[in-house]
Amino acid sequence: MDAFLNIHHYNMNMDPKKPIVIKDLCIACGLCNAMVPSVFDWDDDGKMKAIVNAVPQGQEADVDEAKVNCPTAAIEVK
What is the phi/psi pair of residue 23, to 5°? Predict the structure, then answer.
């Protein structure tokens, strides 16, 4: 039973995270696009947008770094 609980807990923590750009905070500096162009790109309004519904496997650290370095804290990962 303990092994089942450990595997279940592990899988719960592996759910893909959704990147979100908060448009009201974005100043269109382009930093997130420069850091992770496969996740963030320019939107028609001249600001950034997330172009994926989930952070691609292997790019979690890059997206986290973009989030931390965003000058206006406009990036969320849920």
Answer: -60, -35
